[in-house]
Amino acid sequence: MQTQSPVRIRISWPAGNLTADLDDTPTTQALTKALPLVSTARTWGEEVYFDTGIAVPRETNARQVVEPGTVAFWTDGDALALPYGPTPISRGDECRLASPCNILGAIDGDPRLLATVRDGDPVRVELA
Question: The pTM is what?
Answer without folding.
Answer: 0.94
